[in-house]
Write a structure and sequence with these properties.
The chain has 426 residues and is α/β, with parallel strands linked by helices. The chain contains 10 helices and 9 strands. The strands form 2 sheets. Strands 5-6-3-7-8-4-9 form a 7-stranded mixed sheet, with helices on both faces. A two-stranded antiparallel ribbon has the order 1-2. A hairpin with a 2-residue loop joins strand 1 and strand 2. Helix 6 packs parallel to helix 9.
């Protein structure tokens, strides 16, 4: 028995198990130090920014000595454990209704003359490295708003974009997330294997036809076909991962099955609980959540429409925006409480090994500069408990690069980054 990490073999695959106390990690603690818990990352994206007058700290109060404004007041008990950054933006941002489409990518939408080009998002860069030992390389969650791709969030199927700049679909129900993580597969194993063989056979046939078509193509068509081949290779990788895990049971859920049809505040609470559970069971180490907007406002009793709220002025619209800010901070404080409460085998907490990012692509109204950026957790070796005001034209992607590098990834740049944000490094 390996006292540092347990593994299961499935065919030719070697799969690492999550850190389980019941497998004797505590029993062997005196004989050997457990392996360091893995790094984890979660990105929480909100639409329509914040109320700039009451969310951002005073720009003159930088470092650790800053006063929490009204919109962040519920986070007071965690003040030493998060950092706020002002002055960040994506260089190519030009569409205030583009929402979170480019929030984690920093891509130039018009690269090479394209009308809507995108590139890989920061979470998927992390997933390529962190996802090798988990059942799910990453998980994408969405709020249950009917028009989640509206002006608050923009185009896309979640916050995540793959290495071809294509959108990755998300899950918009807490119950569906629970089932994905913890519900046993109802199909017998031999049928699962047959289904996998059929998928591979179909994929092989498509690949052969595409290779025949490749001969004699003009360059532009050849480039398009190469992109198609890349998509096939990605499907093959997903199939290989499914084959690794199909005979291994899912972990026991550390929480009860959530009720269906929850929205707004209750929905976000459930999703946050499920995100903690995904980390706790080592089902995935990279998570994104595109937060609901309209449903959150409705659950708060706000009658103002989400888009109208974003174009606030003193009065009902501004009050709606401020209520939204406070609700987000209350929910975020609860999430941090839960991450701190879950203990790792070495005595540390989940919070000590994960990076929690909360923010938006714009500050408020149509202002695409000063993207509100909140970072917590000890997973990336950043300096916490401070308020930073970045110099003019600092790319938001400098923060993503800093987090990726601080988490141990060998990444030289991301999106429009110009280098890591040195003031963020502990």
């Amino acid at each position: 028995m390996n006292t540092r990490r347990h593994f299961l073999r499935s065919g030719t695959a070697l799969v690492a198990l999550p850190f389980l106390e019941s497998f004797g990690f505590r029993r062997f603690a005196a004989a050997a130090v457990p392996a360091a818990p893995p790094k984890r990352m979660m990105f929480l994206g909100m639409g329509f920014g914040v109320t700039k007058e009451t969310w951002f700290p005073d720009v003159k109060q930088t470092g650790a000595d800053f006063a929490l404004p009204q919109g962040l007041a519920p986070l007071a008990r965690h003040k030493k454990d998060f950092t706020l950054i002002q002055g960040l933006s994506n260089r190519y941002s030009e569409d205030a209704h583009g929402g979170s489409t480019y929030w984690l990518t920093g891509a130039n939408p018009h690269e090479a003359g394209a009308s809507a080009h995108n590139s890989i998002s920061a979470d998927q860069v992390a997933a390529a490295a962190f996802g090798k030992e988990t059942r799910f390389a990453s998980l994408q969650l969405n709020g249950s708003d009917k028009d989640l791709s509206g002006p608050g969030h923009g185009a896309g199927l979640s916050l995540a974009w793959d290495n071809r700049g294509k959108p990755i679909a998300g899950i918009n129900s807490p119950l569906a997330v629970f089932n994905r993580l913890f519900s046993a597969e109802q199909v017998p194993l031999d049928q699962l294997r047959l289904r996998m063989t059929q998928k591979r056979s179909l994929l092989d046939g498509v690949l052969l036809e595409a290779q025949d078509l490749q001969r004699g193509l003009a360059k532009n068509d050849a480039d398009k076909l190469e992109e198609y081949f890349q998509s096939i290779r990605e499907i093959e990788q997903r199939l290989a991962k499914e084959e690794q895990w199909q005979s291994l049971p899912k972990p026991k859920a550390p929480l009860t099955q959530p009720p269906d049809a929850r929205s707004g505040v209750e929905e976000i609470k459930l999703m946050y609980d499920l995100m903690v559970a995904a980390f706790q069971t080592d089902s995935s180490r990279v998570l994104t959540y595109r937060l609901p907007i309209s449903n959150l406002l409705s659950s708060l009793g706000v009658k103002v429409a989400a888009h109208d709220m974003s174009h606030y002025s003193p009065g009902e619209r501004m009050e709606a925006s401020q209520r939204r800010d406070v609700a987000h901070s209350e929910l975020l404080a609860g999430l941090l409480d839960k991450l701190k409460a879950v203990q790792e085998p070495d005595g540390s907490s989940l919070f000590d090994h994960c990076s929690v990012v909360f923010g938006s692509n714009l500050s408020s109204v149509h202002n695409l500069t000063n993207c509100p950026t909140f970072i917590a957790g000890g997973g990336a070796g950043i300096k916490l408990g401070q308020h930073l005001v970045a110099t003019k034209d600092t790319p938001l992607c400098n923060v993503w690069l800093t987090l990726l590098q601080g988490s141990g990834l060998q990444v030289e740049r991301h999106g429009d980054s110009t280098g890591p944000l040195k003031a963020l490094i502990a």
